């Protein structure tokens, strides 16, 4: 199973970016998909997550500005009204992937995509 993240880049404050995370491989089911971010010198933090049923969860710092959505095994993060403090490497995560190969559920991470917001 692989998670491929894309869509990062450089944008001015107030601008928008859309991140995508496509999961591929021997996937039977993914319940939760989420986005985390890690800024230099800071711990990785949850930005947003979405269940297979469409329930969402957001960090307080992005509520009203970011929207997570999902189409089966691809998750999107629409980021509007970006601020310099949103600058970070963004990682997609699927913590409970059930595969067609092995019993149980497994945690997978994408490779990270850089988001830089200039002031």
How would you explain this protein's 3D organization?
The chain has 119 residues and is mostly beta strands. It contains no helices and twelve strands. It has strands at residues 2-6, 9-12, 17-24, 27-30, 32-38, 45-51, 56-58, 66-71, 74-79, 88-99, 105-109, 113-118. The strands form two sheets. Strands 2, 4, 5, 6, 7, 10, 11 and 12 form an eight-stranded mixed β-sheet that branches. Strands 1-3-9-8 form a four-stranded antiparallel β-sheet, with no helix packed on it. Strand 5 and strand 6 form a beta hairpin. It is elongated. It starts with a strand and ends with a strand. The model has no long low-confidence stretch (mean pLDDT 97).
Structural descriptors:
0% helix, 8-stranded mixed sheet, mainly beta, elongated, 119 residues
Helix-strand pattern, N to C?
EEEEEEEEEEEE
Major sheet details:
8 strands, mixed
Which percent bin holds the helix content? under 10%
* Count of strand segments: 12
Beta fraction: over 45%
Q: What would the average pLDDT be, to the nearest integer?
A: 97
SS-based structural class?
mainly beta
Using only CA atoms, what is the Rg? 14 Å
Spans of at least 5 consecutive residues with low confidence:
none
Ends: how far apart? 38 Å
Treating each run of at least 4 consecutive H or I residues as one helix, how many helices? 0
Q: What is the molecular shape? A: elongated
Summed up:
This protein has 119 residues and is an all-beta fold.
Describe the protein's topology.
Layout lengths: L1 E5 L2 E4 L4 E8 L2 E4 L1 E7 L6 E7 L4 E3 L7 E6 L2 E6 L8 E12 L5 E5 L3 E6 L1
Parallel strand pairs: 2-12
Antiparallel strand pairs: 1-3, 3-9, 4-10, 5-6, 5-10, 6-7, 8-9, 10-11, 10-12
């Amino acid at each position: 199973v692989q998670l491929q993240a894309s869509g990062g880049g450089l944008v001015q404050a107030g601008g928008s970016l859309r991140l995508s995370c496509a999961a591929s491989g021997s996937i039977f089911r993914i319940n939760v998909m989420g986005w985390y971010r890690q800024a230099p010198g800071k711990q990785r933090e949850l930005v947003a997550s979405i269940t297979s049923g469409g329930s969402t969860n957001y960090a307080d710092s992005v509520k009203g500005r970011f929207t997570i959505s999902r189409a089966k095994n691809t998750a999107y993060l629409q980021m509007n009204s970006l601020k310099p403090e949103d600058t970070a490497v963004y990682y997609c995560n699927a913590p409970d992937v059930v595969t067609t190969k092995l019993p149980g559920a497994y945690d997978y991470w994408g490779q990270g995509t850089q988001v830089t917001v200039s002031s």
